[in-house]
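User: Please predict the structure of the protein below. I'd like the answer in structure-token form so I can feed it into my own downstream comparison script.

Assistant: Understood. Taking the following sequence of 442 residues as input:
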Amino acid sequence: MTTITSVRAEPVETLAQDTRSALRLITCGSVDDGKSTLIGRLLVDSKAVLQDHLAGVQRQGQTDLALLTDGLSAEREQGITIDVAYRYFSTEARKFIIGDAPGHEQYTRNMVTAASSADAAVVLVDATKLDWAAPDLKLLPQTRRHSLLLKLLRVPSVVFAVNKLDAVSDSAAAFEHIGAALRRFAQQAGLPVTAVVPISALMGWNVVDASESPQWCGYTGPTLLEILEGLPVTAADTTLPFAFAVQWVEKFSSSSDTSQGRRVFWGRVATGGVQPGQPVRIMPNGQTAVVAQVLNHVRQPQAVLAGHSAGIVLDREVDVSRGDWLLAEDDESSPDAIHGSRELRATVAWLDDETLVPGRVYWALHGHRWVKAKIKRIVHRLDIHTLAEEDATQLEPNAIGHIELTLQEPLATLPFARSRALGSLVLVDTASHRTAGALLVL
């Protein structure tokens, strides 16, 4: 593997171009496309697996790479991935946090959970399942569904990996036709694709090391790992106004200082940044205050930017509790101002086993705040085969569509296209407490 020279760590402001920080990525695609095997190959060939661990995943004298990620007993018994399994490994160039998302349609909710915080995704495509000899071949529905979800979830880097090309008679033709079909679909869906690369996860070709045959499949580009080593992490929303979801309230044991409040509000800065002297307003009660002190994650006084944890002390005692938001006290007429709203339009990935119908009431979770949400109207459903928007009166499990909903209390949201943190909500069934849907504010 090519060694990449280490570089100086960049400041928080330049995270958009950061290729040194740990990359959070997931593998997704249709069932049995080789996702678990691919991660196993990355772990083994990058020397991230101990010998005793390798010895525990032997089957009939052969190493079963998929067992390195399929940790649940049900997964090992059935030979499928059910839950998202996270693994950690590093190369000379960077560190990786990789999640193995399940391919079965009934576990789409787990894939959505993993993709919501991913910097990149590798979509596996099994060449043996497709009519690879046909130039106008059709992709599998789950490949299309997962790719569309990656777009909706704003995963910035998407790599298509055409797998199992060692098992077809004409690997070059198969890669050409499948690659063309993937690019056509990506163009129709408006999905930015970083690369399309041929691999054999089982044999290890073009995963960590190049294949033994030069120009295998007519491909002369970098290996999959080399591509991943060069991908940037997701840029923090530092240019937006300050927004901070209160996760925990800490009270000083004793304090004689009356120039500031006696509580520290801990959480993660969602957007913008915070520093002493900054005016803020509290959502939902509308009170205002001034930041007296900012602590970083190790309790040192320091200004903190989006994506990092902070403890905030205000200049006076105000009614703030878990779930409240601290927002920048900006000009309300500013296009960047964060307003509270009780009416939302959103894209929904429906994850519940029960059909979504108008009139149902759910819990909506935004940051750490819970409010009741009523489904006002289903605007349309997205056909994953044609990408057309169809009229609909309900959404079946794993469907994607647009809905309108009314909230019991206003929430401080921004369109998901502008902010992942402020534009995402989760719907939870009020009776079963199951996660019912993932919402992306429009």
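That's the full token string. The longest strand covers residues 369-382.
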